[in-house]
Amino acid sequence: MEAPGESRDAAASLRAAGAGPGSPVAVAWAPDGVGLAHEGTAVWQRGDGVAVVRRVLHELRPRLTWWSAADALPLLSGGVRVPSSWDVAATHRLVAGGSAGHPGTVWAAARGLAAGHLPRTGQLDLLGGLADGQGGHGHDDPVDAHDPVRPDGYLRPDWAETGPPDAVAAAAWARAALEVAAAHRAVLAALPDPRRDPPAPALAELTAWSESAAEVLAVELGETGLPVDRATALALVEERAGPRPADAAEAAATRAARDAEVRDLVRGAADVDLRNPAQVRDLLHRAGIDVPDTRSWRLEPFRTAHPVVDALLRWRKAERVATTYGYAWLDRHVGADGRLRGTWTGCDGAAGRMTASAGLHNLPAELRPAVAAEPGHVLVRADLGQVEPRVLAAVSGDQDLAAATAGPDLYAPVAGRLGCDRATAKIAVLAAMYGQTSGTAGEALAGLERAYPVAMDHLRAADASGRAGRHVRTYGGRLVRMWHLENPEPAAVSARGRFARNAVVQGAAAELFKMWAVTVRAALPPGAQVVLCLHDELLVHAPAAAADEVVALLHECLRRTAARWAAGSGVRLVADVSVVTRWSDAKG
DNA sequence: GATTTCACGTA
DNA sequence: CGTACGTGAAATCC
């Protein structure tokens, strides 16, 4: 491997090395410049790294590779249109499962090195030497100050922690990312394509591209934020939690008044701490209500038994807003520009859904009127209709279930086939996908087995795999790991079965959704941005004049995504799209 | 001070 | 009709 070379024109150097349209070029940033790599060639250039990459993109039209989508941030901030990219961390999560993404972990996994021996920062001197020239403590292997790999094969932890120290190191760092990407491609290429009629590229590779783009979208969502009408938000909070307290004493008084509405309904309950479940249970007991715990679904049937139950449940709702979604929450997460910002991940540790902090994914419906388009703009809200049963039809290859996706409502034809009503059919399908433990879907469930044996076998196979502790792979190739059970009690074994059964459906649905979302993102007109991803729902903030265009785009992007993702399955995927001013205006 | 339990919001 | 996630408060464990 050649040492990285300095370049005055990185684009020309990369072109000389064979880079061109669509070819992989890795990027790594350093404080003093940028490193770039194509195949075995690594170059570095000092100065404005963003300008260098902008020029490389313009002249070569390559596909970028990076250790993680955090490397997209300088480009996004610099207003550079980020093209399709390959995210080494995201692809690691796809091929290996889990939520890891640190370069050291990813490198070790790709090289087959034991994760238990991963070096940490500060240990480098024990294993061969330091970059600053302090000795090797008797070891024979000299450590190249610009080699990202240590003599023992692991990646140097100091660079992984803080990034390469300079542009020379960044070039080698970029080349190392390319090496991992090549290893991942080989793993993905060996996975079978589950589609009946697979067009190129193979589904697992397509998924890797999509997941990579989803990571960029996650970074972008964290920057963009969700538009919030602060006045409405404050009004909604005030209705539920009272006026904003001026000081701690006032806050305590408001709280005490709220507590009193519940305590006053039961004799001798003046000192009960309503935030303490054990004390609440005692209070209910004094009111003649005996419950094993105080969860709201358990208390619901007792709403009419004693007024304290209704008061308590209403208190809980108000308390939720006051503590979790109150003034402190608005102060912490809504910026001066009226954008609610949280931290996004492109995939969680389990089946691969996106996650978001700052309450973005669990905002109570009653606060949704506060999510509003800015002046001159609209919110285009779109969600995938009945996505999980449609996904089940696609991933299992069940032609009869696929036939049921032809219309807008999948459950009607299923009910016809089963000879039951629609509501029963819906419960049966959901019970099959999620592995019911209670309730009475019995007869309809047996009907499903007869009518759609291919889909039901697919679910049963996943369930059996989970019970046995064998990992499963989703349709797009994501490894979903099963955990070891010290003492495999039946309850734990069947919980693992339900987890696996759910993961193959939920995980595939997440892959489909992300592919749709990133296709939409790449096609949006100027001024329009994706502002929220919610598992099967997309929210786009767009100039009012572009509303119709965005609506058409959401449908068209789903058509294009389905043509690749569900090629040959005969499954129809549908989106419900509406143009609104406030999120709450859309039907849910 | 860190971890666990309970509770509850979203899909 | 089950899974997943993030959150806050109180209890629990050092």
Short description:
Helix content is 47%, strand content 11%. Mean pLDDT is 91; it is low at 123-142.
Give the low-pLDDT segments. Answer: 123-142
> Briefly, what CATH class of the largest domain?
Alpha Beta
Q: Which range best describes the helical content: under 10%, 10-25%, 25-40%, 40-55%, 55-70% or over 70%?
A: 40-55%
User: What oligomeric state do the depicted chains represent?
Assistant: single chain
Structural class: alpha+beta
Query: Beta fraction of the residues?
Result: 5-15%
Number of strands: 16
Backbone CA Rg: 27 Å
Strand arrangement in the largest pleated sheet? 1-4-3-2-5-6
Structural description of this entry:
- The protein is an alpha+beta fold and 588 residues long.
- It has four domains: 5-190, Nucleotidyltransferase, domain 5 (2-Layer Sandwich), CATH 3.30.420; 230-330, Taq DNA Polymerase, Chain T, domain 4, CATH 1.20.1060; 340-386 and 510-585, Alpha-Beta Plaits; 389-509, 5' to 3' exonuclease, C-terminal subdomain (DNA polymerase, domain 1).
- 47% of the residues lie in helices and 11% in strands.
- It has helices at residues 10-16, 49-60, 73-77, 88-96, 103-111, 157-162, 167-190, 203-224, 230-241, 248-263, 277-286, 296-299, 307-323, 327-333, 387-396, 399-403, 411-418, 422-434, 442-451, 453-468, 490-523, 547-565, and strands spanning 5-6, 24-30, 33-38, 41-46, 63-66, 85-87, 226-227, 339-340, 344-345, 355-356, 377-384, 472-473, 479-480, 529-533, 537-543, 575-580.
- Strands 1-4-3-2-5-6 form a six-stranded mixed β-sheet.
- A hairpin with a 5-residue loop joins strand 12 (472-473) and strand 13.
- Helix 1 (10-16) crosses helix 2 (49-60), helix 8 crosses helix 21 (490-523) and helix 17 packs across helix 18.
- 43% of the residues are buried.
- The model is unreliable at 123-142 (pLDDT under 50).
- The chain binds a DNA duplex (11 and 14 nucleotides) through helix 13, strand 10, helix 18 and helix 21.
